[in-house]
Fold these 4 entries.
Entry 1:
Amino acid sequence: MFAAMAAPVNNPDHGFCRDCLTFQRSETRRCERCGSPRLARHPELYRLHLAHIDCDAFYAAIEKRDNPALKDRPVIVGGGKRGVVSTACYIARIHGVRSAMPMFKALEACPEAVVIPPDMEKYVRVGREVRALMQALTPLVEPLSIDEAFLDLSGTERLHGMPPAVVLARFALTVEKELGITVSAGLSYCKFLAKVASDFRKPRGLSVIGEAEALGFLAEQPVTLIWGVGKAFAASLERDGIRTVGQLQHMERGDLMRRYGVMGDRLYHLSRGEDDRRVHPDSDAKSVSAETTFDTDISAMAELVPVLRALSEKVSARLKKSGIAGRTVVLKLKTQDFKLRTRNRHLGDPTRLADRIFQTGLDLLRREADGTKYRLLGIGVNDLSDDDKADPPDLVDIQSRKRALAEGAIDTLRGKFGKKAVETGYTFGKGRSTNPPEPIED
């Protein structure tokens, strides 16, 4: 697949070519073999083994791959004019389009953009293909989302016959050739800096942050570089006169913890490049949810209830398919002025039943039906576990057993004749979005 490499010249200052993987014999500006300018060099290049891999504009890249006519067009993947941007390609990003931006603002910034509704089934399929290629490199793969993961490549040099940095470059070429999308990778000595590095030179980037340079590099960065420092917390730090990571490096751990509690401890360690977390393979999902954005804001329960039922059925289907259940039901609402409301209820036993998820969500929804107009509705479960102890018989609510049996019969019919073979009275013949997007496993 790739050109045979000469015996490794393990001089990190000379590096290797990311396009033909040839080790360089001197500090040239272009590859001595193929002429490519994409050379990887770093004093610690061959000593580092902890990587973070992130697919570039994942959803949009898949759509461009599947429709070559979109190659040079700005592409936005999202939920129509009323939805938000899921992913924007790099051409659209040049115009100022960003993920999670309201679609109307994205189209104001880039009116010539092609908007494509998300196809989660396709994205999940490609995500699994990328994951399989990762797991061929090392068993230590910790997924963070559908398109990114940490990898620990320590001890794999003998297996692959090359240092982890070259293994990452070869992986990126394999993904491009076999799957038709691109990835960026960060390489470092800890998870925090590996993830930071992967964002540096997107798309098709390979960036390295070594241990010797960590303190100096971090000192110049804004505090928002640290995980957990969002807008609100950054504003608190700003009020205390703290704007850069370098300022945190000069503060005592006790002082930071007195001011900011547990987060102060994180600030102390990460500002110094100290992160001893290991890569944990096959991290379990934390929640399963589904949501939909309406074409027009609505407040009437008569219109919200059918959507809630349809979303509950989709979440339930995903739970059953995965053999898991959730103990906490979470209702998500977004008002017309983009303010988010989340309400949750802890159940006595984990559930995977659509009826139980729906009834719990419905009770939470009734409490929010105060005339407020909503642009988004979502339902989900967290506190996940195996489904072997889910939904035990309820000695108080004797009808719950009958509803569970009826739901099982509905599942059987849908599995045989399709999703629309049987509908409940909540959704049958109703308008609005009674066919919302597939559930999202967070």
Entry 2:
Amino acid sequence: MATSTGDVGGLAQFGHDSWGLMLLKAVLIFVILMLLTLFSIWAERRVVARMQQRIGPNVNGPFGLLQSLADGMKLILKEDLIPKTADKVFLIAPAIVVTPAFAAWTVIPFGPTVKLPWSDNHTALQLTDMPVAVVFVLAMASVGIYGIVLGGWSSGSTYSLLGGLRSSAQMISYEVSMGLSFVAVFLYAGSMSTSQIVAAQDKLWYGLILAPSFVIYVISMVGETNRAPFDLPEAEGELVGGFHTEYSAAKFMLFFLAEYVNMGTVAAMATTLFLGGWHAPLPINLIWDGANSGYWPVLWFFRKVLCFLFLFIWLRGTLPRLRYDQFMHFGWMRLMPLSLLWILAVATIRTINLNGGIDRQWLYAAIALGVVAIGVLMFVGEKKQSEAAAREEAAEFDAFAGGYPVPPMTAAAAPRRTG
């Protein structure tokens, strides 16, 4: 049966819903994600069109809202082609990608505990929760990588295989920095449960007091979802179409659906962990006592999620695509060291505060000096590399010295003499 009282909090409020209520929640999550995907596709085409001084979809339905639905029906009804060299895994790879994308939403809190309209029972606006809910979301994202790798390998195409390997390397690299950005939240909230992390932000959002973690997560979530300027799996000029080159019709639609659902997932996680979840933003919660009760928090939650989705669209319409070496270098040599140093700083501050504390002026000054020193060292290294590259380019080279035009050979590619 559903929870009979509204004062049960924490993880104790989950696991008491009836099977019918749990099924209703699961169906509502599925419907919400499908509608969110259709709206995201339409909004992306309209917003990018406005940025490029075009009209965008405006024929099917009011303001073109049914264009995404029409495209989905077209993909479902199209002929499904399977390459002769494809493996049997080719058929199940899209399901491996899309299933974890939906499963991750089972631990996302949409709102507080509310009274059911048809009875006196209460239930949380969340399907379920667990002590390691955030780790569960990361695990679901990791399972989706298997679908991408298997999709590229099973296509029987060299370009699809290269696209799958590059996509998996990209997602794994930025998933590490994404997970590291969560550690500071765990230290402050004292829990990995999504509902308890939201409850811990009733006074102050972690996006403010843990701003470096928030920035690292926002960058990592763009790389994790393969979106511009990190949309290397879709680098048509390099790998045709990436890991899904050989997919068509409904199977391609599942890959497309998983990408947009994952966009919503990382946006919901950013909202949950850093922007107070379903809590009303300032100054609404100060002037209205009922802003965080009832079903109103669902509105605040999705407004924050839509802001992140607009950020995805804005980045796609304004920034050019990075090179693969630049992208991987930034993830491993910039984001990960900064994440580790920030975790060390947060852990030090929390330990000092819990043990009585010291003069925070000296602590903040030491942290500021450390950040400045790290920045200087990073830029000095970049400057030395740039100067070395400039000297190499400035070196005189005669392309016709051997009678035929040949490109210059770098020091790394030059053959080594032995003996």
Entry 3:
Amino acid sequence: MATSRDRLGAVEAGESSGHQGYSGVEAVLSSDPATPAPLCPHGPTLLFVKVNQGKEEPRRFYACSACRDRKDCNFFQWEDEKVYQLFGYIYLFLMYLKFIELPLSQRKFCQSCQQLLLPDDEEKHREHQVVGDVSITQLKRPSKLLYPLENKKTNAQYLFADRSCLFLVDLLSNLGFRRVLCVGTPRLHELIRLKESGDKKSNIRSLLLDIDFRYSQFYMEDSFCHYNMFNHHFFDGKAALEVCKTFLQEDRGEGVIMVTDPPFGGLVEPLAVTFKKLIAMWKEGHSQDNSQKELPIFWIFPYFFESRICQFFPSFCMLDYQVDYDNHALYKHGKTGRKQSPVRIFTNIPPNRIILPIEEGYRFCPLCQRYVSLENQHCEHCNSCTSKDGRKWNHCFLCKKCVKPSWIHCSICNHCALPDHSCKGPKDGCFICGALDHKRSTCPNISTSKKVNKAVRKQKQRESNKMKMDTTKGQSMNHTSVTRKKKRRERTHQYLCS
């Protein structure tokens, strides 16, 4: 029997090996709420389905919501399996107040274990890599003290460069926000708290929701919640949920904004569902008169997810501001063309209210009434600044829109694409029949497809069994033949020697 790790690996291997038709894993968000999802160490799991165009019937399975790499969380359970598991949660709680009362010479941090050490703990970490003289300044910037978790499929803890972080803090302050819900943005949370403590005129506060439990060493429960943004799970239960709810609903929900920077390898659908739950939590503190208002949001994500994000949040627009990161090899400010950072800010705040820094190469377009990058030229045919990746885009009169400069119009596909693109088959629509007016789940041919796929599976199984039998038989015959030849050589050798 395959282990859970092996089965998840088989599903993922099928996704990467398919060359013909569409193959992929989709999140199933319409599962029966009466059937609770099984738990993994990261909270409730998500339901997924493996989809193959024109191939065998898909089977649904549960997997970790936060970890896309099975090396980090190998939980796997088929939907129709009944597995009863009990997980315990281990949290690291150190007495932060006791630590800061220690003399500087006794304040130590274990880099091997990524935790603050009290004097009684030093003996256990004697052979570890320990840093001494931890200052109050370092404690206020824990993201620079901790090692970043750089697995892009799990935590993807790429941290804002100070340039982008300071821009966001100033922008939020200038827009008049008094509270910032930082979902997966620890460095922004740090700078807001520094601004609050250093500037007496500043009245901006923040609450950090993050899956990295190490931050619980540095923040009290009213400023940090251990949280999984992929399934809206508060690890500390109802108490943490109430902290978040109170923060959002303070002053009847006025003056608060949510800023989120999810892992780039995360699925948009589960994130959108989670953010809508946070929006619903915020709306609970509103009166009926304000039911049409929206929670202001900054969703920081690569520009090529624009259509997916706008599918769930139609009021969002994408800003031209390039967000860069300290510990990412490519996403750095100052690069041009396709080498620049692809990370942008998606928001429901009107773009004419957001001023981008002119000294960094942004200009105000009077026709679009918003700030854009210098390379983003206004198209008189589209009546907008259309570039998204830092290059000047070209207008295609056949497609009636601007496209990337490297694309050409294909007469077969009847749209613009790369010169060496493939024109085979539909890329959208139903994976079973190829029609564009419906999806696989509502295909009228799904029952026929199931019968055909079942027959195909049986035929493949028969062929596989036959190949195994032929291989075993061939190996047995080859072994017999080799043995006979060996004995014949031995007899000949003995005769010659005699």
Entry 4:
Amino acid sequence: MGHCNSLLLSLLLGLVSLSAAEDDHGFNFPVKKLIGDFNLFPPHDVNIARYPHSDVNKIVEKPLRFPNVLGSDDSALPLDDLAHRAGYYSIQHSRAARMFYFFFESRNSQEDPVVIWLTGGPGCSSELAVFYENGPFKIADNMSLVWNEHGWDKVSNLLYVDQPTGTGFSYSTDKRDIRHDEEGVSNDLYDFLQAFFAEHLEYAANDFFITGESYAGHYIPAFAARVHRGNKAKEGIHINLKGFAIGNGLTDPGIQYKAYPDYALDMGIIQQADHDRINKVMVPACEMAIKLCGTEGKIACTASYFVCNTIFNSIMSQAGDVNYYDIRKMCEGNLCYDFSNMEKYLNLKSVRDALGVGDIDFVSCSSTVYQAMLVDWMRNLEVGIPALLEDGINLLVYAGEYDLICNWLGNSRWVHAMEWSGQKEFGASPEVPFTVDNSEAGLLKNYGPLSFLKVHDAGHMVPMDQPKASLEMLKRWTRGTLSQPGDDVEKSFVAEL
């Protein structure tokens, strides 16, 4: 059987070459292009520090006061009254790894839920979300900070981590600490949470939610399962896990890659002939490759990444310069998005002093981490979710409707295909408007602990494209009222004060 599989693997790699020959863009689904599209050019591929910090404590943090915070948000407490922190966690099961994190206390109440956010990539820093999506501040062109009126800290205590090791300000002095799979990623995150709550017992009893987007569609289910397993085994501090949310994520590649040609055809990106050709040649090859990944291990999983991404690259060869994170927009050169102000700001000496990062380089997106995780890419992370649902842990999957790369159609299909006790009832549940300010901001399906939300007028980064709707989504979901129309956050925030 192993010999047959080896022959099949050789055949699949041959199909990759054949597809690449047909495709002007080849099969190099490129990390450097992805980083270039974000206009991010870190000086190093990964954060391997030569001179580590000398401390040996698990958590080393300092009160965070960013310089040059302009103005005030009418709904915010005075900045000095809020607990903002930046710190490092010495990863317990590593040789020499340190995980960098931010903590922002809720502008509303310390008793609000604790929400952790994971940025994808894999290998992109959570500072992308801090400053461009749902953090308390945004960066102005003059390198000052302004309050984000739709920051998720309006309704939650927010944690952001730079992970896996080598991402953002997280670092190691030993390259062997670079992670390759979800076991390593989720164990590091779980150990960090244990250390964080041990340091901050005042938040330990709060409701806890895991959120994130893109490749975090892999991280989040694995991390949620790890937390739940730790709670059941009474390993340490009980973490009050209530739910996890995946935004425009990659969770079940077997289903999601098959949805690419259908979504592209529906949105007018490709023609029917292109759709039929991809479905005839590339989709079956991808299906075989994913099956091999499940049985043959690392080499087959890496091969399946290249095999399956011929589907995406073939679509992009027809799409031209469309921004595959938001197909309403075009890419001008390599500047689909310009996040360069983040790197400029984080390299200011006053900012680095405030963060306590010393001489550690900031790696916005690490190609080394990205490549290390290729063996993990095509694995199905949906498999661990049903057990969480059965134990009453809530899942919200949401997706902006104009994202191609982790499109809403593929996400909807894996959510509907997932086998659990409520599968039939979820499938039969009505699709209802998700309204914000009496306007339809999306379409929602819900049954029991499972919810799926298609967000209107948004691409890959929903909190950036629809900040008010995403804040309202988080508020209602964490309060168990997602399917109920409600007042917007600003109005209810004032009432609660």
